[in-house]
Structure formats: structure tokens, C-alpha cells
Prior knowledge:
With 220 residues, the protein is α/β, with parallel strands linked by helices.
Amino acid sequence: MRVVYLHGFASSPQSTKAQFFARKFAEASVAFEAPALDQGNFEKLTISGQMQVVESAVSRAAPSGEALVLMGSSLGGYLAALYAEQNPQRAARLILIAPAFQFVERWETRVSASELEQWKHKGWASVYHYGAKAEQRLGYQFLEDASKYPAVPDFHQRALILHGTEDPVVPYQVSYDFALAHAHTRLTLFKSGHELTDVLEDLWRETASFLEIAAPGVVS
């Protein structure tokens, strides 16, 4: 088994969840990779560019073309779903943590029309980058490029969605509606927010069970 983990927006492979799952999969002797999706250039970030990074990571993890497990958090969950839709032969199963479905629509409702216009006029906006722990520029091309992609990717592999019922960023109803319309998808809800860092062990138990991993402390 091979797992490729995709971190969230303005995050990094050093995030709490990425590092937690890296340790857990290592303990279970499962190959794990978490690429830096912005490749060190957050200002030029796009969905298209991140998809190229995902393709490279998948090729490294499974050079002979084997199917693997894609795991993603928030925007990384969206990317995992998008890759699975486009490459059904490469993604065997998916684990999506609060996937950012419909994120362009929600972004445009959270930001005023004048702020969007200013972002477009300047060409960039200041965004807090959790990986760098500092404000960084993000180019307007991010929103323009993202609008070319489906709001909710339609994949048909087996999937596990983990979502918090108190998520203020991505309402759990989005995941609920997706799971309701896709018999291959199982949704597990937690009394938690968007980050879900307070229920990490619960996330791992659900993940290990879904992947049928014989891991310490987990009954398969």
C-alpha cells in the first residue's frame, strides 16, 4: 500500500495532520509521501500547478503505474478528489478530511465585491500562510484558474470522508450531500471544527479501519 497525502491551502507537509499521519503510517509500515503543493512559490499558486505536483508525487510513489491511496485535507481533499476523477486507474481509494468542495463559490461569498476587485486590480492579496507562519502574497490567478475546475469532482472510487460538525470553513453538509449521492463514499462526522486536530486519534482509527491496516491500537 502507498499513500500520497495532500495538505490544505496555505499549509505545508509540516502541518500537524500531515506529520501525525506520517508517523502513524510509518508505524504501520505503509509508504507515505506528502509533497509541498506550492513548491515554495505560494504567490503563483494555482489548481493546475498543484495538480502537476500531485501527478509527480503519484509517479514517484507508484512508478510502475500501480493504484494508490490519495489522502487530502481541505483544499488537498479537493485536489485528491479532482485527481481521482481525472485518473481513476491511479487512485484506488480516497480519504478526504473536510474536503473543500465548492471552495470558489464560498470564497466569493466570504469576500466582498470590492475586495475581489482590489485583488484583481493589484494582482495579489495578502494571505496568512500557516506553513510559513507569516503573511504571503497570493496572485489573483489562483481564483481565475480555480474557476475552470468543477466545484465538486465526481469520482467513483471507494472513499472515506472525515468531517467536523462545527466546521465554519467548509460546512459538513457539503460532504453529507456528496456521500448521499455516492454509494461508494462513507462519511464519518466528529464534534469538531475544520482542523480536526483535537480528534486525530479518532481520524486514525477510522482511516486504519477503512484501509484495513493492522496498526497498533486498531482492530481491523
